[in-house]
Amino acid sequence: MPELPEVETIVQALRSCLIGLVPIKVICHKEKILRTPDLLPKALGYPIKDISRKGKLILLWTPPYVWLIHLKMSGQLWWQPQHKPLPPHTHLIVSFAETDKQLRYADLRQFGYWQIVPEGKLSQVPFLQKLGPDALSVTPKLLQDRLRKRKTAIKSVLLNQECLAGLGNIYSDEALWLAQIHPLIPASTLSSTQIERLAWAIKKALIRGIKLGGTSIRDYLHPDGRKGLYQNYRLVYRREGLSCLRCGMPIKRIKVAGRSSYFCPMCQKV
Ligand SMILES: [Zn+2]
């Protein structure tokens, strides 16, 4: 599943191609992908002013409307000329007034979605109302507030988008390894030193991910089809049995909240 660094990489790439363009036509082959088909005719014809991100959600600003795009498990955005064959599992195609290039949305597992919202009603979107602060903006104080009342394992709290938006399985493991915190420690019991370290580690892990263009292990690609590079520079994620990069102990894997979690039993003691 694309996490904050993958979505941020996509947003940066889309900004350089889409800003100023006017979407004039949308073809959608899968009803459930476009959640607001009734708003579509009204929302076409306005130039794209900005593209931003909140957690893992992409926001395409065409005032007076905002297009929300969530890639979920396997959504991919492609920026391709019309004559190129469609990528497999393409469900939605946006054409523009000024170019023959198209924004194409492919999604093998079809959990992702597009939603058009009038700008003034953005704050009423339930998903956005529940979403926690963006993980890239984390500070020790903010993290302390978010973790204080949560008694579950820190790993599952970090995965909870209502607590902090943007982290998934990869970068939460990386952050916990950097901060030397065991994934099963109850969030509310972390000391203020640990919280300070974790806030630093979350930012560090995410910024490394963005600099390397994200992680391409399964479906994630840049809009031009290139792969991210982070998979070659992982600190702990999917390194079970390999030596810890800090102390040399073999990395272990356990299940937390149904997800595989990788950690060093020496550096990340309970
Ligand atoms: Zn270690």
Description of the molecule:
With 270 residues, this protein is of the alpha+beta class. It folds into 2 domains: 4-130, MutM-like, N-terminal (N-terminal domain of MutM-like DNA repair proteins), CATH 3.20.190; 135-263, Helicase, Ruva Protein, domain 3 (Orthogonal Bundle). It is built from 7 helices and 10 strands. The chain has helices spanning 4-18, 40-43, 126-130, 140-147, 154-159, 169-179, 192-211, and strands spanning 23-28, 50-54, 57-62, 65-70, 75-81, 90-96, 101-107, 113-118, 252-256, 259-263. A hairpin with a 2-residue loop joins strand 3 and strand 4. Helix 1 (4-18) crosses helix 7 (192-211) and helix 6 (169-179) crosses helix 7. The protein is globular, with a radius of gyration of 20 Å. Residues 244, 246-247, 249, 264, 266-267 line the site of zinc ion.
